[in-house]
Amino acid sequence: MGNKTAPLVVGGRPLHERLTEGLAAYTGMVLAAVTARVPAYRLLPAEELSGDITKVIEQNLRSFTAVLRTRALPAQAELDFLRESAARRAEEGIPIDIVLTAYHIGIQVVWESLTGEVRPAEVDDVMAVNALALRYLELVTPAVGAGYLDERQAVFDDERSARHTLLSALLDGTPPVAGGLRLPPGYAVLALEIGAHADESADGVDPMVAGRRKLRRLRVELERQIRDPVLSSLTPEGGIALVPDTSTPDWPRLTRILADVSRAAGAEITAGAAAAEPADVPAAATLAREVLRVARTSGRAPGLYQLDDVLLEYQMSRPGAALDRLSAMLAPLSGNGELVRTLETYLRHGSRRPTATELHVHPNTVDYRLRRITGLTGLDPTRVSDVALLRAALTASRQSPPW
Predict the structure, then answer these.
(1) Residue limits of the PucR C-terminal helix-turn-helix domain (predicted)?
(2) Which of 169, 208, 334, 344 is least enclosed, having the fewest CB within 10 Å?
(3) How far apart are CA 20 and CA 22, in angstroms?
(4) Residue 55, Cα to own-chain centre: how many angstroms?
(5) Could you give the C-alpha distances from 170 to 85, 274, 289, 331, in angstroms and in order?
């Protein structure tokens, strides 16, 4: 290559001179390309496009022009300016990929506008320009990314703190301070039980890492589907979430959202749910947790449950003499899980053949076990008059099993 101190020439003129003289035109070209290629930039206010965004593009071109003139990479002061600019984009909520794309587009526009004028004798200079452009982007990209992420982390920390404070106040029943968050008319209060992801038990995989990844996917999908901030206190096993809504939530929609969240997390999710205005959140959280407990102890499949969905089981779980008497009816089955499983399965199907299929036994075996249950408890699962009592006894026994 030629003299490393000589100007880099394209089209018979030093490139840095061409860029300096045409700075305004190049700035306009880059702005037009950015808004054409990145739809999000077209949504910005015209004042911002002609102000901050144009200023950043111009500074980026000046900085690159200086690199071409001196063949030295940007100084720290220039990098600090780019970091601060990226921080403002983060504060405005512009995604990081869009911010970084704008810098790359700026270099591309300059490059594409000049390559058609390259003369054969200038090939070495063009190669040098290309190398400097790559080194420039290599240095600028992490600086811009760091400035953006530092601001996003600060915003995230502030928002997370505000959400935690608001959640704690709502759950404690103290007057909530929204901290910049809009307080909705009501919440869908969800008590969640999160099943394990397959990775949590896979050989060679750290279960804590797998659990955190599962939880992150759950939160991301929940935030994606719910427009307003969701207040939550969750571990990989479950917790509480307050979904902003009206005082009468759209439960079918929330059921669909929960199914989507479950798929995104790769884990089964069971939720007890209750609606509440902000002042009633503590009582709703208690009810949601109880509904979740009843749904799980009564063998319900994963999904979202309200009180009406488990009304009988909920009532049967209330302490009292009747609950104790009902539970005691199945005390003779204590220690015989095989008979208990047969009874549960038979009452669910109401017929011996599907019961035998699920239990992987012969129908005659089911008959034999049902006769044993009748002999031990005095209640016949095949007799209509005894079925309701046996169902109630099973529900009661799940709260305080005698076996």
Answers:
(1) 339-396
(2) 208
(3) 6
(4) 35
(5) 37, 14, 16, 42
User: Could you report the per-residue pLDDT of 84-131, keeping only the tens digit for each?
Assistant: 888 888 877 777 877 888 888 888 888 888 778 888 888 888 888 889
| Bridge partner list, 242 | 189, 231
**Portions of the chain given CATH number 3.30.70.270:** 186-315
135's tokens: 């080194």
Sorted by sequence, the CB contacts under 8 Å of residue 71 that are 6+ apart come out as 4, 5, 8, 128, 132
CA 302 to chain centre: 19
Question: Tokens at residue 78, please?
Answer: 């220039």
Class of domain 9-153: mainly alpha
Phi, psi angle pair for 100, to nearest 5°:
-70, -35
User: What's this model's pTM, rounded to 2 decimal places?
Assistant: 0.55
**Token pair recorded at residue 324:** 């104790």
The residue type at 246: T
Q: In the 3-class helix/strand/coil scheme, how is 146-163 assigned residue by residue?
A: HHHHHHHHHHHHHHHHHH
What CATH number matches the domain at 319-399, 1.10.1040.10, 1.10.10.2840, 1.10.10.10, 3.40.50.1820? Answer: 1.10.10.2840
